[in-house]
Design brief:
The protein has 461 residues and is an alpha/beta fold. It has helices spanning 13-26, 44-49, 65-74, 94-102, 131-141, 164-170, 183-193, 212-216, 221-236, 241-244, 297-302, 315-319, 363-368, 381-385, 397-400, 431-436, 448-453; strands at residues 3-9, 31-38, 54-59, 80-84, 88-89, 108-115, 149-152, 159-163, 197-208, 274-277, 283-287, 290-293, 310-311, 339-343, 349-353, 356-360, 377-378, 388-389, 407-410, 416-420, 423-426, 444-445.
Protein backbone atom coordinates (compact mmCIF):
# COMPACT_ATOMS: atom_id res chain seq x y z
CA UNK A 1 0.00 0.00 0.00
CA UNK A 2 1.17 3.49 -0.88
CA UNK A 3 1.68 6.33 1.59
CA UNK A 4 1.41 9.91 0.34
CA UNK A 5 3.88 12.04 2.32
CA UNK A 6 2.66 15.65 2.31
CA UNK A 7 5.22 18.32 3.26
CA UNK A 8 4.70 22.09 3.41
CA UNK A 9 7.48 24.57 2.73
CA UNK A 10 7.94 28.28 3.34
CA UNK A 11 11.61 29.07 2.76
CA UNK A 12 14.17 27.15 4.88
CA UNK A 13 15.56 25.32 1.85
CA UNK A 14 18.37 23.74 3.88
CA UNK A 15 15.82 22.13 6.22
CA UNK A 16 13.78 20.85 3.30
CA UNK A 17 16.84 19.30 1.64
CA UNK A 18 17.85 17.60 4.87
CA UNK A 19 14.33 16.27 5.48
CA UNK A 20 13.96 14.95 1.93
CA UNK A 21 17.36 13.26 2.05
CA UNK A 22 16.40 11.41 5.24
CA UNK A 23 13.13 10.22 3.67
CA UNK A 24 14.95 8.85 0.63
CA UNK A 25 17.53 7.03 2.73
CA UNK A 26 15.41 5.63 5.56
CA UNK A 27 11.96 4.89 4.09
CA UNK A 28 11.47 1.22 3.23
CA UNK A 29 7.70 1.29 2.61
CA UNK A 30 6.18 2.45 -0.70
CA UNK A 31 5.58 6.19 -0.76
CA UNK A 32 5.04 9.25 -2.93
CA UNK A 33 6.19 12.78 -2.15
CA UNK A 34 3.88 15.79 -2.37
CA UNK A 35 5.33 19.20 -1.54
CA UNK A 36 3.14 22.29 -1.15
CA UNK A 37 5.09 25.55 -1.19
CA UNK A 38 3.47 28.57 0.44
CA UNK A 39 5.36 31.34 -1.36
CA UNK A 40 9.06 30.71 -0.70
CA UNK A 41 11.53 33.28 -1.99
CA UNK A 42 14.79 31.48 -1.17
CA UNK A 43 14.91 29.11 -4.16
CA UNK A 44 12.89 26.34 -2.52
CA UNK A 45 10.32 26.15 -5.31
CA UNK A 46 12.93 25.98 -8.08
CA UNK A 47 14.90 23.27 -6.26
CA UNK A 48 11.80 21.15 -5.59
CA UNK A 49 10.75 21.46 -9.24
CA UNK A 50 14.02 19.78 -10.22
CA UNK A 51 13.44 16.71 -8.01
CA UNK A 52 12.20 13.80 -10.12
CA UNK A 53 10.36 12.07 -7.25
CA UNK A 54 8.49 15.17 -6.04
CA UNK A 55 4.98 16.25 -6.97
CA UNK A 56 5.01 20.04 -6.40
CA UNK A 57 2.13 22.41 -5.72
CA UNK A 58 3.43 25.98 -5.76
CA UNK A 59 1.28 28.66 -4.14
CA UNK A 60 2.19 32.24 -4.91
CA UNK A 61 1.51 33.29 -1.32
CA UNK A 62 1.15 31.80 2.14
CA UNK A 63 -2.23 30.06 2.18
CA UNK A 64 -1.70 28.88 5.73
CA UNK A 65 -0.87 25.47 7.13
CA UNK A 66 -4.39 24.03 7.16
CA UNK A 67 -5.30 25.04 3.60
CA UNK A 68 -1.96 23.93 2.16
CA UNK A 69 -2.18 20.55 3.88
CA UNK A 70 -5.65 20.13 2.41
CA UNK A 71 -4.21 20.94 -1.03
CA UNK A 72 -1.53 18.30 -0.66
CA UNK A 73 -3.95 15.68 0.65
CA UNK A 74 -6.32 16.36 -2.25
CA UNK A 75 -3.48 15.51 -4.65
CA UNK A 76 -2.58 12.32 -2.81
CA UNK A 77 -2.92 9.00 -4.59
CA UNK A 78 -1.91 6.77 -1.69
CA UNK A 79 -3.92 4.62 0.68
CA UNK A 80 -2.46 6.63 3.56
CA UNK A 81 -1.68 10.28 4.13
CA UNK A 82 1.30 11.28 6.24
CA UNK A 83 1.69 14.96 7.12
CA UNK A 84 5.30 15.84 7.89
CA UNK A 85 6.97 19.14 8.77
CA UNK A 86 10.02 20.06 6.71
CA UNK A 87 12.12 20.75 9.84
CA UNK A 88 12.17 17.04 10.70
CA UNK A 89 14.63 14.21 10.10
CA UNK A 90 13.28 10.68 9.81
CA UNK A 91 15.32 7.58 10.47
CA UNK A 92 15.38 3.78 10.50
CA UNK A 93 12.05 1.97 9.99
CA UNK A 94 10.07 5.10 10.81
CA UNK A 95 7.21 4.67 8.35
CA UNK A 96 7.00 0.88 8.55
CA UNK A 97 6.59 0.92 12.33
CA UNK A 98 4.00 3.74 12.20
CA UNK A 99 2.00 1.79 9.61
CA UNK A 100 2.07 -1.29 11.84
CA UNK A 101 0.60 0.81 14.62
CA UNK A 102 -2.12 2.24 12.35
CA UNK A 103 -3.21 -1.14 11.02
CA UNK A 104 -3.24 -2.96 14.35
CA UNK A 105 -6.88 -1.89 14.81
CA UNK A 106 -9.36 -0.53 12.28
CA UNK A 107 -10.56 1.99 14.89
CA UNK A 108 -7.15 3.66 15.06
CA UNK A 109 -7.81 6.95 13.29
CA UNK A 110 -4.51 8.85 13.57
CA UNK A 111 -0.99 7.80 14.58
CA UNK A 112 1.82 10.05 15.79
CA UNK A 113 5.42 9.32 16.91
CA UNK A 114 7.58 10.29 19.84
CA UNK A 115 9.83 13.31 19.36
CA UNK A 116 12.10 15.80 21.07
CA UNK A 117 9.99 18.87 20.18
CA UNK A 118 6.30 18.04 20.34
CA UNK A 119 3.23 18.02 22.59
CA UNK A 120 4.13 17.04 26.18
CA UNK A 121 2.57 13.56 26.11
CA UNK A 122 4.47 12.70 22.92
CA UNK A 123 7.78 14.08 24.12
CA UNK A 124 10.80 12.05 25.09
CA UNK A 125 13.96 13.52 26.59
CA UNK A 126 16.74 12.60 24.18
CA UNK A 127 20.09 14.35 23.84
CA UNK A 128 21.35 14.03 20.27
CA UNK A 129 24.20 16.37 19.44
CA UNK A 130 24.52 15.37 15.80
CA UNK A 131 22.50 13.83 13.01
CA UNK A 132 24.67 10.74 13.12
CA UNK A 133 24.01 10.28 16.83
CA UNK A 134 20.28 10.62 16.17
CA UNK A 135 20.35 7.84 13.58
CA UNK A 136 22.29 5.55 15.94
CA UNK A 137 19.67 6.17 18.62
CA UNK A 138 16.78 5.55 16.20
CA UNK A 139 18.30 2.35 14.90
CA UNK A 140 17.64 0.76 18.29
CA UNK A 141 14.54 2.75 19.22
CA UNK A 142 12.44 2.39 16.04
CA UNK A 143 11.44 -1.24 16.44
CA UNK A 144 7.95 -2.73 16.43
CA UNK A 145 6.79 -2.84 20.05
CA UNK A 146 3.03 -2.62 20.72
CA UNK A 147 3.71 -2.34 24.46
CA UNK A 148 4.82 1.23 23.71
CA UNK A 149 1.56 2.26 22.05
CA UNK A 150 -0.76 4.56 23.99
CA UNK A 151 -4.09 6.21 23.23
CA UNK A 152 -4.10 10.00 23.66
CA UNK A 153 -6.60 12.82 23.20
CA UNK A 154 -4.31 14.94 20.98
CA UNK A 155 -1.50 14.36 18.51
CA UNK A 156 0.80 16.94 16.98
CA UNK A 157 0.47 17.70 13.28
CA UNK A 158 4.25 17.81 12.82
CA UNK A 159 4.03 14.12 11.87
CA UNK A 160 0.60 12.59 11.55
CA UNK A 161 -0.37 9.35 9.77
CA UNK A 162 -3.89 8.32 8.85
CA UNK A 163 -5.80 6.41 6.22
CA UNK A 164 -6.87 8.54 3.28
CA UNK A 165 -10.43 7.34 3.89
CA UNK A 166 -10.22 8.71 7.44
CA UNK A 167 -8.94 12.06 6.19
CA UNK A 168 -11.85 12.26 3.77
CA UNK A 169 -14.33 11.18 6.45
CA UNK A 170 -13.12 13.95 8.78
CA UNK A 171 -12.99 16.54 5.99
CA UNK A 172 -9.32 17.42 6.47
CA UNK A 173 -8.12 20.43 8.44
CA UNK A 174 -10.47 23.28 9.28
CA UNK A 175 -9.06 26.13 7.20
CA UNK A 176 -10.43 28.69 9.65
CA UNK A 177 -7.25 28.04 11.66
CA UNK A 178 -5.31 29.93 8.99
CA UNK A 179 -1.53 30.24 9.27
CA UNK A 180 -1.26 27.40 11.74
CA UNK A 181 -1.91 26.25 15.30
CA UNK A 182 -4.60 24.04 16.87
CA UNK A 183 -5.82 22.71 13.52
CA UNK A 184 -4.18 19.40 14.47
CA UNK A 185 -5.88 19.39 17.88
CA UNK A 186 -9.17 20.16 16.18
CA UNK A 187 -8.75 17.33 13.66
CA UNK A 188 -7.86 14.90 16.43
CA UNK A 189 -10.85 15.91 18.49
CA UNK A 190 -13.16 15.40 15.53
CA UNK A 191 -11.67 11.91 15.16
CA UNK A 192 -12.43 11.19 18.83
CA UNK A 193 -16.01 12.36 18.33
CA UNK A 194 -16.26 9.89 15.45
CA UNK A 195 -15.23 7.05 17.78
CA UNK A 196 -11.69 6.78 16.43
CA UNK A 197 -8.54 6.43 18.53
CA UNK A 198 -5.51 8.71 18.44
CA UNK A 199 -2.58 6.37 18.98
CA UNK A 200 0.92 7.30 20.03
CA UNK A 201 3.43 5.02 18.35
CA UNK A 202 5.86 5.08 21.24
CA UNK A 203 8.17 2.77 19.29
CA UNK A 204 9.04 5.49 16.74
CA UNK A 205 11.16 8.61 17.31
CA UNK A 206 11.39 11.45 14.78
CA UNK A 207 13.67 14.43 15.26
CA UNK A 208 11.90 17.79 15.05
CA UNK A 209 13.59 21.17 15.18
CA UNK A 210 10.33 22.99 15.84
CA UNK A 211 8.80 26.36 14.87
CA UNK A 212 11.39 26.89 12.14
CA UNK A 213 8.90 28.39 9.65
CA UNK A 214 7.40 30.73 12.24
CA UNK A 215 10.78 31.99 13.38
CA UNK A 216 12.43 32.31 9.99
CA UNK A 217 9.48 34.08 8.39
CA UNK A 218 8.85 36.56 11.22
CA UNK A 219 5.39 35.20 11.99
CA UNK A 220 3.99 36.23 15.39
CA UNK A 221 3.69 32.72 16.78
CA UNK A 222 2.12 33.80 20.10
CA UNK A 223 -0.44 36.03 18.40
CA UNK A 224 -1.43 33.32 15.92
CA UNK A 225 -1.68 30.76 18.71
CA UNK A 226 -3.86 33.06 20.81
CA UNK A 227 -6.25 33.62 17.91
CA UNK A 228 -6.51 29.95 17.02
CA UNK A 229 -6.84 28.84 20.64
CA UNK A 230 -9.77 31.24 20.98
CA UNK A 231 -11.25 29.76 17.81
CA UNK A 232 -10.96 26.25 19.24
CA UNK A 233 -12.72 27.29 22.45
CA UNK A 234 -15.50 29.02 20.52
CA UNK A 235 -15.93 25.91 18.36
CA UNK A 236 -15.88 23.24 21.06
CA UNK A 237 -16.54 25.09 24.32
CA UNK A 238 -13.53 23.98 26.38
CA UNK A 239 -9.82 24.73 26.78
CA UNK A 240 -7.62 22.71 24.38
CA UNK A 241 -5.09 22.18 27.18
CA UNK A 242 -7.44 19.51 28.52
CA UNK A 243 -6.56 17.43 25.46
CA UNK A 244 -2.91 18.44 25.13
CA UNK A 245 -1.43 18.55 28.63
CA UNK A 246 -3.12 15.80 30.65
CA UNK A 247 -4.29 12.27 29.99
CA UNK A 248 -8.04 12.28 30.56
CA UNK A 249 -9.46 8.86 29.55
CA UNK A 250 -12.98 10.34 29.43
CA UNK A 251 -12.11 11.90 26.06
CA UNK A 252 -11.33 8.49 24.54
CA UNK A 253 -13.86 6.39 22.63
CA UNK A 254 -16.17 4.09 24.61
CA UNK A 255 -15.72 6.10 27.82
CA UNK A 256 -18.17 8.25 29.75
CA UNK A 257 -17.86 10.77 32.56
CA UNK A 258 -20.14 13.44 33.93
CA UNK A 259 -19.84 16.34 34.31
CA UNK A 260 -17.50 16.51 31.32
CA UNK A 261 -17.32 18.72 28.20
CA UNK A 262 -17.01 15.68 25.91
CA UNK A 263 -20.22 14.05 27.14
CA UNK A 264 -23.75 15.37 27.36
CA UNK A 265 -25.23 14.37 30.74
CA UNK A 266 -27.65 11.48 30.47
CA UNK A 267 -29.61 12.16 33.66
CA UNK A 268 -30.04 15.09 36.09
CA UNK A 269 -27.14 13.98 38.27
CA UNK A 270 -26.01 15.45 41.56
CA UNK A 271 -23.77 18.49 40.96
CA UNK A 272 -20.02 18.26 41.54
CA UNK A 273 -17.52 20.54 43.25
CA UNK A 274 -19.29 21.31 46.55
CA UNK A 275 -18.90 20.38 50.22
CA UNK A 276 -21.43 18.71 52.50
CA UNK A 277 -21.51 17.61 56.13
CA UNK A 278 -22.78 14.32 57.51
CA UNK A 279 -24.51 13.71 60.84
CA UNK A 280 -21.18 12.64 62.32
CA UNK A 281 -19.68 16.05 61.55
CA UNK A 282 -17.47 14.70 58.76
CA UNK A 283 -17.14 17.06 55.80
CA UNK A 284 -17.02 15.67 52.27
CA UNK A 285 -16.25 17.10 48.84
CA UNK A 286 -18.56 15.81 46.14
CA UNK A 287 -16.90 15.08 42.80
CA UNK A 288 -18.48 13.14 39.93
CA UNK A 289 -20.88 11.18 42.08
CA UNK A 290 -18.40 10.33 44.84
CA UNK A 291 -17.97 11.80 48.30
CA UNK A 292 -14.36 12.51 49.21
CA UNK A 293 -13.93 12.79 52.99
CA UNK A 294 -11.86 15.69 54.28
CA UNK A 295 -8.99 13.89 55.99
CA UNK A 296 -8.63 16.17 59.03
CA UNK A 297 -9.35 19.59 60.43
CA UNK A 298 -5.78 20.51 59.48
CA UNK A 299 -6.61 19.74 55.85
CA UNK A 300 -9.83 21.75 56.17
CA UNK A 301 -7.79 24.76 57.28
CA UNK A 302 -4.90 24.30 54.82
CA UNK A 303 -7.37 24.22 51.95
CA UNK A 304 -8.81 27.54 53.17
CA UNK A 305 -12.28 26.09 53.58
CA UNK A 306 -14.92 27.73 55.76
CA UNK A 307 -18.13 26.29 57.16
CA UNK A 308 -20.26 28.78 55.26
CA UNK A 309 -19.21 26.89 52.11
CA UNK A 310 -20.39 23.54 53.51
CA UNK A 311 -23.87 22.52 52.39
CA UNK A 312 -26.66 21.25 54.61
CA UNK A 313 -27.69 18.48 52.28
CA UNK A 314 -28.71 15.82 54.79
CA UNK A 315 -27.04 12.54 55.62
CA UNK A 316 -29.39 10.50 53.46
CA UNK A 317 -27.93 12.04 50.33
CA UNK A 318 -24.32 11.64 51.49
CA UNK A 319 -24.91 8.04 52.61
CA UNK A 320 -26.16 7.18 49.13
CA UNK A 321 -22.84 8.12 47.53
CA UNK A 322 -19.80 5.85 47.20
CA UNK A 323 -16.69 7.03 49.04
CA UNK A 324 -13.88 8.38 46.90
CA UNK A 325 -10.22 9.21 47.53
CA UNK A 326 -9.86 11.40 50.68
CA UNK A 327 -9.09 15.10 50.44
CA UNK A 328 -5.75 15.27 52.24
CA UNK A 329 -3.45 18.31 52.13
CA UNK A 330 -0.55 16.01 52.99
CA UNK A 331 -1.05 13.86 49.89
CA UNK A 332 -0.24 15.99 46.86
CA UNK A 333 -1.61 15.94 44.22
CA UNK A 334 -4.04 13.04 44.66
CA UNK A 335 -5.44 14.44 47.89
CA UNK A 336 -6.43 17.78 46.34
CA UNK A 337 -9.69 18.81 44.65
CA UNK A 338 -10.01 18.52 40.87
CA UNK A 339 -10.63 22.30 40.62
CA UNK A 340 -9.21 24.94 42.99
CA UNK A 341 -7.34 28.23 43.25
CA UNK A 342 -3.64 28.03 44.17
CA UNK A 343 -1.19 30.64 45.43
CA UNK A 344 2.58 30.32 45.06
CA UNK A 345 5.08 31.57 47.71
CA UNK A 346 5.40 34.95 45.94
CA UNK A 347 1.64 35.50 45.89
CA UNK A 348 1.06 34.49 42.27
CA UNK A 349 -2.39 33.07 41.67
CA UNK A 350 -3.40 30.11 39.51
CA UNK A 351 -6.60 28.42 38.53
CA UNK A 352 -5.92 24.69 38.74
CA UNK A 353 -8.49 22.83 36.69
CA UNK A 354 -8.40 19.11 35.94
CA UNK A 355 -4.62 18.83 36.07
CA UNK A 356 -3.73 22.12 34.33
CA UNK A 357 -2.59 25.36 35.98
CA UNK A 358 -3.61 28.66 34.43
CA UNK A 359 -1.66 31.68 35.76
CA UNK A 360 -4.04 34.50 36.72
CA UNK A 361 -2.73 37.90 35.67
CA UNK A 362 -4.55 40.06 38.23
CA UNK A 363 -7.12 40.10 41.00
CA UNK A 364 -9.50 41.88 38.63
CA UNK A 365 -9.28 38.89 36.29
CA UNK A 366 -10.08 36.56 39.18
CA UNK A 367 -13.11 38.52 40.26
CA UNK A 368 -14.37 38.84 36.69
CA UNK A 369 -14.92 35.08 36.46
CA UNK A 370 -16.11 34.53 40.01
CA UNK A 371 -12.92 33.47 41.80
CA UNK A 372 -11.96 34.75 45.24
CA UNK A 373 -8.34 35.35 46.37
CA UNK A 374 -9.24 34.31 49.91
CA UNK A 375 -10.07 30.80 48.62
CA UNK A 376 -6.55 30.22 47.27
CA UNK A 377 -4.66 27.19 48.59
CA UNK A 378 -0.94 27.84 49.24
CA UNK A 379 1.41 25.56 47.28
CA UNK A 380 5.16 25.43 46.77
CA UNK A 381 6.73 26.13 43.40
CA UNK A 382 7.49 22.47 42.69
CA UNK A 383 3.88 21.60 43.41
CA UNK A 384 2.60 24.38 41.15
CA UNK A 385 4.97 23.43 38.34
CA UNK A 386 3.95 19.77 38.50
CA UNK A 387 0.67 20.71 36.82
CA UNK A 388 0.46 21.22 33.07
CA UNK A 389 1.34 24.79 32.07
CA UNK A 390 -1.84 26.34 30.68
CA UNK A 391 -2.53 29.62 28.91
CA UNK A 392 -2.27 32.75 31.12
CA UNK A 393 -5.63 34.16 32.18
CA UNK A 394 -5.62 37.72 30.91
CA UNK A 395 -7.58 40.00 28.62
CA UNK A 396 -11.16 39.04 27.84
CA UNK A 397 -11.40 35.88 29.92
CA UNK A 398 -14.94 35.27 28.69
CA UNK A 399 -13.55 34.76 25.18
CA UNK A 400 -10.17 33.24 26.02
CA UNK A 401 -11.23 30.52 28.46
CA UNK A 402 -13.86 27.91 29.04
CA UNK A 403 -16.50 28.41 31.70
CA UNK A 404 -14.86 27.96 35.08
CA UNK A 405 -16.20 24.76 36.60
CA UNK A 406 -18.08 24.83 39.90
CA UNK A 407 -18.86 28.53 39.80
CA UNK A 408 -22.17 30.28 40.51
CA UNK A 409 -23.31 32.69 37.80
CA UNK A 410 -26.23 35.06 37.33
CA UNK A 411 -27.58 35.11 33.82
CA UNK A 412 -28.90 38.09 31.84
CA UNK A 413 -32.41 36.87 32.75
CA UNK A 414 -31.63 37.24 36.46
CA UNK A 415 -31.58 33.49 37.09
CA UNK A 416 -28.85 31.64 38.96
CA UNK A 417 -26.76 29.01 37.17
CA UNK A 418 -24.07 26.60 38.28
CA UNK A 419 -21.32 25.76 35.81
CA UNK A 420 -19.97 22.25 35.43
CA UNK A 421 -18.83 20.26 32.43
CA UNK A 422 -19.07 23.45 30.32
CA UNK A 423 -22.82 23.61 30.84
CA UNK A 424 -24.94 26.01 32.84
CA UNK A 425 -27.34 24.28 35.21
CA UNK A 426 -30.24 26.46 36.40
CA UNK A 427 -31.02 26.56 40.12
CA UNK A 428 -34.72 25.97 40.67
CA UNK A 429 -35.18 27.23 44.23
CA UNK A 430 -33.27 29.54 46.56
CA UNK A 431 -33.21 26.68 49.08
CA UNK A 432 -30.85 24.92 46.68
CA UNK A 433 -28.12 27.38 47.70
CA UNK A 434 -28.20 26.26 51.33
CA UNK A 435 -28.32 22.62 50.38
CA UNK A 436 -25.05 22.81 48.47
CA UNK A 437 -23.21 25.51 50.44
CA UNK A 438 -23.53 28.20 47.77
CA UNK A 439 -23.92 31.90 48.49
CA UNK A 440 -25.98 34.15 46.26
CA UNK A 441 -23.59 37.02 47.01
CA UNK A 442 -20.80 35.10 45.25
CA UNK A 443 -22.73 34.81 41.99
CA UNK A 444 -21.03 36.59 39.09
CA UNK A 445 -22.86 38.14 36.16
CA UNK A 446 -22.01 36.13 33.07
CA UNK A 447 -21.38 37.93 29.81
CA UNK A 448 -24.56 37.79 27.69
CA UNK A 449 -22.80 36.51 24.57
CA UNK A 450 -21.25 33.64 26.54
CA UNK A 451 -24.53 32.86 28.25
CA UNK A 452 -26.40 32.59 24.96
CA UNK A 453 -23.87 30.21 23.38
CA UNK A 454 -23.41 28.00 26.46
CA UNK A 455 -25.47 24.79 26.59
CA UNK A 456 -28.01 24.60 29.41
CA UNK A 457 -27.80 21.49 31.56
CA UNK A 458 -30.30 19.75 33.79
CA UNK A 459 -31.81 21.93 36.55
CA UNK A 460 -30.52 21.58 40.10
CA UNK A 461 -33.23 21.19 42.73
Amino acid sequence: MLTSIVILTLNNLDQTMRCLHSIRVFTNSPYELIFVDNGSIDGTTAWLAQQPDVKLIANGANRGFAAACNQGAAAAGGDHILLLNNDTIVSHNWLTVMLQCLHADERVGIVGPKSNFVLPLQKIAVEVSSEGQYHLFSQNFNRHNPAQWHDLAALSGFCMLLRRSTWQRLGGFDEAFGVGGYEDIDLGYRALREGLFLRLAGDVFIYHEGNRSFNANAIDMYGVAATNRRLFIRKWGFNPERLILVHDPAFLPDRYASPHPHHAPQTPELPSGWYGMGEDGCVYRIERGHKRPIHSYDTFCRLNLSFDRVGRCGSALLNSLPTGHPIDAGNFPHGYPDVFIARDPAGGMYSVCHGVRYPIESEATMLAIGLRPEDAIPLGYEQIWSYGDGWPMRGDVWENFELHDYTLYRGPNGGLYYSEGQRLRPLVWEETLTRFGWNMDRAVFIAPELFHRSPIGFPIH
